[in-house]
Amino acid sequence: MRGRWRMLLLLLCACKAEIGGNLADPDGGTDANADATDAMGTFGPWSAPMMLPGASTAGASEDDGTLSNSKLELIFSKADPAIDAGRKHLYWMSRTAVTSTTWSTPVRLSINVDLTSDETPRFSADDKTLFFASNRAGTTGALDIWQSTRPTIGTAMGWTMPTLVGTINSAQTDKWCVPCSLGKYLMVSTRNSLATPSEDIYEGTTGGGAPTLVAELSDLTKTDNGAFISSDCNTMFFASTRAGAQRIYTSTRASATSPWSAPQPLPDFVAVGLAQEDPWLSEDGRTFVFSATTTAGNKDVYITTR
After folding, report:
1. What is the CATH number of the domain that holds 189?
2. pTM (two decimals)
């Protein structure tokens, strides 16, 4: 038993979180062992989480924050009662350096469509492909996974007309598509056959047909969402209500073909807001982004470093 926990700690120490490349590119990820010397003890504690300016406005709800792998761009979802009847839309903002706390004014992405919702964005490894969920025309379920590409990083402009992603969508809700290397991906779906379907974690391989339920990560009686996976496909984070209030959990595995470990709660941010969700961890393990529900009932995006 002690050996198992030692292995879990080692895997967590080596956690790498750059999203893999284009979902159709099996070699899109980066070397997850490139910074193996980043042992847990070298990081120190997380800084006090701070609301991201522009993604934490009064009277609106912002969540689904995801940084680019450069950590210079942020895309998030915003539901503003004054815009499109409060439907969720994707916004972009940037900064000039990873140490800067000054962000540009949020810009609504041109790929948004009024009278529909766009949410749960995730970047590819090269930051040129964006995967997100939408209920726009062409969607087969409540939400489907769509993708858009751009020729140049560092700008809100140039995103192509979104297209549906492969064969991974269902007639239910599909969101939080997160690609990693080896052509694999995680996603969240309500495609289970329960009378009252829950949001659960699914895993698939590009071109391999419909994704399958990850039983060791999913609690079919609770909500499991906000999936995020490291570039080597072996460390993941998600949010769950399995123990009451929504909290962030993490799990690891020895290889892409090994079972996931029992999810463990991440205690670092439980004091932020009433509930936490939408985890994102940088490739170097030093920047963490998440969302939290405020006492006013809205959500804001937070960032912390170490």
Report:
1. 2.120.10.30
2. 0.86
